[in-house]
Write a structure and sequence with these properties.
Length: 315
């Protein structure tokens, strides 16, 4: 007898109109969640209409309760999908679980775990921590709130003599690989000219440039990433061939920042109208250097740089 009840509880019973009445979630929202997240995993009739189970309804009610308390929609759905995976089988009672905050670790704690694992050379554990982050947070959030702070922390530790060059390189290259992966696996780019991202001649620190590339690419802007130590002669030839929508260069030290002042000397007439922007830590520490470089200063933070870059592209 129990077995029959168990099957019935997992049987598709409700059409989308009934689910809307049971959960208070509009039909348009249910359609959007299905398209964007594949949630919940409903079945279809022969005519293509959605049918939902009791389990689907319980998960939808839970998600709505989390959203009503202020949790972002995508995080609530990710948490519900994790619950659905961790608790297989039918549900005879409406889903009752702890608040979503208990299902995933807050970013500051995960950031600390990642930093410790990397400094202890435990790359397998680092992969697990980063995987847990990606289950609940977007690459954009991790770029701004995890990768950036960890790179900054490691850089300051190296500058203070607390972290060896080998350890700094291990951490930096591990995080660089992830940023490069997120940059090339972004959504389909818009059919427009690319943004060229390059470090000034002699500049080898490209962490902030990579992060900007991730943020631009995740918004659909095509990116031509040239990376570290790009000579002006080679860059000018490259620009002549692709005619980009924007050029962004970064410098982290005063010596490399000063070389950017010579950039216009390498432009030919065909490249004179390409927008040029620049940034980097040295321009924050020594703001007087901003006036010596022709072009648009992107600002003191990565968020400002992203906003200014998009403004230049939209023009």
């Amino acid at each position: 007898m129990a077995k029959k009840v168990k099957v019935a509880l997992e049987e598709p019973l409700y059409n989308i109109g009934m689910v809307t009445r049971l959960t208070g979630i509009p039909v348009t929202t249910l359609h959007a969640w299905d398209r964007r997240y594949g949630f919940p995993q409903s079945s279809r009739t022969a005519g293509g209409h959605r049918l939902y189970t009791e389990r689907n309804v319980s998960l939808l009610r839970w998600v709505k309760s989390q959203i009503d308390t202020g949790l972002a929609t995508h995080r609530a759905i990710l948490a519900a999908q994790k619950l659905d995976k961790d608790m297989p089988g039918p549900m005879s009672q409406p889903l009752k679980q702890p608040q979503a905050e208990t299902l995933f670790t807050p970013l500051p704690a995960l950031r600390q775990q990642l930093s410790i694992a990397l400094l202890q050379h435990e790359l397998g554990r680092s992969d697990l921590v980063l995987g847990e982050m990606l289950a609940f947070y977007t690459p954009e959030e991790l770029t701004l709130d995890v990768i950036g702070p960890v790179l900054n922390e490691i850089g300051e530790g190296w500058a203070a003599g607390k972290i060896s060059v080998a350890d700094e390189h291990l951490v930096s290259n591990y995080l660089r690989q992830r940023l490069l992966m997120w940059m090339v696996t972004g959504p389909r780019p818009q059919p427009v000219k690319p943004v060229v991202l390059a470090c000034a001649p002699g500049e080898w620190h490209d962490g902030s440039l990579l992060m900007l590339g991730v943020l631009l690419r995740r918004q659909g802007w095509p990116v031509a990433y040239l990376g570290q130590n790009v000579p002006f002669a080679d860059l000018a030839d490259f620009l002549q061939r692709i005619q980009p929508a924007l050029v962004v260069m970064v410098a982290m030290r005063s010596t490399t920042a000063k070389t950017l002042a010579d950039w216009p000397k390498w432009l030919d007439k065909d490249n004179e109208n390409i927008p040029f922007a620049f940034g980097g830590r040295v321009f924050v520490v020594q703001p007087e250097l901003q006036q010596s470089v022709p072009g648009t200063y992107l600002g003191d933070t990565l968020q400002e740089g992203m906003k200014k870059s998009v403004e230049l592209l939209q023009r």
